[in-house]
Each structure stands twice: as C-alpha cells, then as structure tokens.
C-alpha cells in the first residue's frame, strides 16, 4: 500500500503549461488566514500584479483579491510556465507583506477555446458579491479586468 501524498503535491501532478493559454488560478493563504481583509494588505496584493517580474510571465486579464485567497485569470506568455508565474507573484506579495502567507500548491484550470472569456472574468470579479461581502461588484475595491 502506497502512503498518501500531501494535497499540495497532488495539485502539481499532471500540470502542463502552454504559452498563449489562458489559466484560471486560485492561490490560498495558509490556514485560510484572512490576511487580505486588511485594506492595506489587499492593496499590496493588487499592486503585485503590476510588478514587471510578474508581468514578464504573461498578461493578467482579471483578478480578485478575497480575504483569504486570490483568483487570477492569466494569459501565459512565452517566459516560464504557470508554476513559475505563481511562484514569482507569491514571492512579490510575501515580500510586500513582510512574511510568508501562502499555503503550498495552487489550483489551476486551462480555459478551453470555446469558453466565453468575458463570462469567466465576470465570474472571477463577481466573487465578493457571491460571498456576501458587497452587494455590487463596483463596491469592492480589490479587483480588475482588462475589459472594464
């Protein structure tokens, strides 16, 4: 009988990155700590998307920073892969906050060509409404999308 592998290791199995592919990524804080409930912390997380080192890995199409996780819609560039992009982004956030905050691993899903990209972006930025944090997306300050 084979010993059970940690969940984070299971998330990496079969992961494949392709330049030009669009990925929906979810990054979660360790222990689901609500680090980004603090306005200043959340704004630092938002600013990390604009860092050149992060932008080198692709184009951020949409994101939302929730109290204990981040959803990121990324069109991967030719530099590195999804894991490298996430590693650089999380490092920038941890440096900005002065401590490690992320759980190991992350969730990723490659979007299919036939998927409605704008609908996926709306789903991403609509998370605060579905979570009951705000009544309207426009009332939540920690999101962006290239279409809006």
Overall mean confidence score, pLDDT = 89
What distance separates the N and C termini?
52 Å
Could you estimate the helical fraction of the residues in percent? 25-40%
Cα Rg: 15 Å
* Unreliable sequence segments: 1-14
Could you please describe the fold and organization of this structure?
Helix content is 33%, strand content 20%. It is α+β, with helices and mostly antiparallel strands and 148 residues long. Helix 2 runs antiparallel to helix 4.
Give the SSE map.
Elements: H1 7-12, E1 22-28, H2 39-48, H3 52-55, E2 58-65, E3 69-76, H4 82-97, E4 107-110, H5 117-125, H6 127-130, E5 143-145
Antiparallel strand pairs: 1-3, 1-4, 2-3, 2-5
Offer a concise description of the structure.
The chain has 148 residues and is an alpha+beta fold.
Keywords:
alpha+beta; five-stranded antiparallel β-sheet; globular
């Amino acid at each position: 009988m084979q010993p059970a592998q940690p969940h984070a290791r299971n998330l990496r199995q079969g992961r494949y990155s392709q330049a030009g592919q669009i990925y929906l990524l979810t990054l979660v804080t360790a222990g689901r700590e609500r680090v980004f409930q603090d306005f200043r912390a959340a704004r630092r997380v938002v600013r990390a998307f604009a860092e050149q080192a992060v932008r080198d890995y692709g184009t951020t199409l949409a994101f939302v920073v929730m109290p204990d996780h981040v959803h990121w819609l990324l069109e991967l560039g030719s530099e590195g892969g999804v894991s490298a992009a996430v590693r650089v982004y999380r490092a920038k956030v941890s440096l900005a906050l002065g401590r490690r905050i992320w759980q190991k691993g992350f969730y990723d899903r490659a979007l299919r060509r036939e998927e409605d990209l704008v609908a996926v972006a709306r789903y991403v930025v609509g998370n605060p409404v579905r979570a009951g944090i705000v009544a309207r997306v426009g009332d939540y300050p920690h999101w962006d999308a290239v279409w809006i």
